[in-house]
Amino acid sequence: FIIDVPDEMEGDTLSRAVNSFGTSVVAVVAGAAGRRLGKVHIHTDSPQAVFDKARSLSRSKSLVKEKAEDMLLQLELADCRDFALANAPRKVAVLGSSGMSLPAELPPALTPTLANLLFMVDDETYEGNDDITPQEFTDIMRREPNAMYTTSAARMGDYLKKIRELLNEAEEVLLVSLPFQISAGTKTAIDGALAQLDEAQRQRVFVWDALAICANLGVLTAKAVKYSSQGLSASEIIEKLEHMRQESGFWVCPPNIDLGIKSGRIPQTPALKCLNSLRLLAVATGVRVPTIAEARASSNAKAERLKLAAVGCGARDKVVAKLRKQMLSVVPKDTPVGFTLQHTGRPDQLAGMIDFIKANFTVKYMLLSYLDPPSLISMGPGTIAVGWFVHTED
């Protein structure tokens, strides 16, 4: 983190102030009087407590910059970075899209190729993560709340170009896709790209509709790259991802549905049934999320596996209380679980959630990240999201 510090504070003073929160502490203070900044690096299991302490030390009682990376997740995804295997000729190349939230800790060797979604702010267009990061997009939405924000699926030409490039690098290409029932444009673009390939090329491309969004989609895609590095075929990877998705869930808590209506996403909510969203229009009614057993017993079990639920909007305390109640009723307590937590530029909105998760579940890893721009456009600043995956293997 970086904070503005009092003129009399030096690096060793700042280091001692946070030393009890973790290890590998490095603190540097620099700048002229009245404009001195302190920067701290620390390894800790309690990032929110560190940020709270940092605010208390700051002259303005706020943070200039904050960043929390999950090193346990990095080890989980990279398997201690066996790059000898990861850099070997690939049997399967993985293609995703910039509509997902990838773990920030991913090493380059385990990062998928991405087709770029288009993000529009009034008349200005950004091409996915190449032009703008989720944090930068969030900052724009906070500065310009009255602008028109829209998204467009990655273009057919972009998919075609990257599929052809990957076919030259690997035996097979696995395309991990946004849900087709949410993004019909994505299906149209992918179908158009496949139609441009010859028959031999098409037989080497496998498309998997992930039925997942946000950080959960990112984790599934990262897992696909990891399985690829282990020498699995595309069909074998899909089998593993299907199993992983069955033991997962995702909740999103928007402050309201105004942006969803403005962006045109709310009229599409019947299609969101594929994710068991219970419809964004019903967020204020508090419908209970089905358990894994109930979802599997449903006639639409495959579509309901993700258990995405818009659990509420309005008063933050009431929304978080409802979210915690649903988590206790659905998430396994005695099995290792990996969690994804997302915010829209206000990590403090997740205050207490980390401690709640640690106190009630067996945590495999916990990933904090910004909400991806497509979801942010529909739900707006102030949204929080929580996802989970059961880890019964690797």
UniProtKB/TrEMBL annotation:
Keyword Cell membrane: no
A GO term for molecular function: lipid binding
Database matches in SUPFAM superfamilies: DAK1/DegV-like (SSF82549)
Keywords: Lipid-binding
Residues in Fatty acid kinase subunit A-like middle domain copies: 2-74
Signal sequence annotation: none
Pfam families: DegV, FakA-like_M
Keyword Translocase (UniProt): no
PANTHER family hit by this protein: DEGV DOMAIN-CONTAINING PROTEIN DR_1986-RELATED, FATTY ACID-BINDING PROTEIN TM_1468
Protein name stated in the entry: Fatty acid kinase subunit A-like middle domain-containing protein
Species annotation: Chrysotila carterae
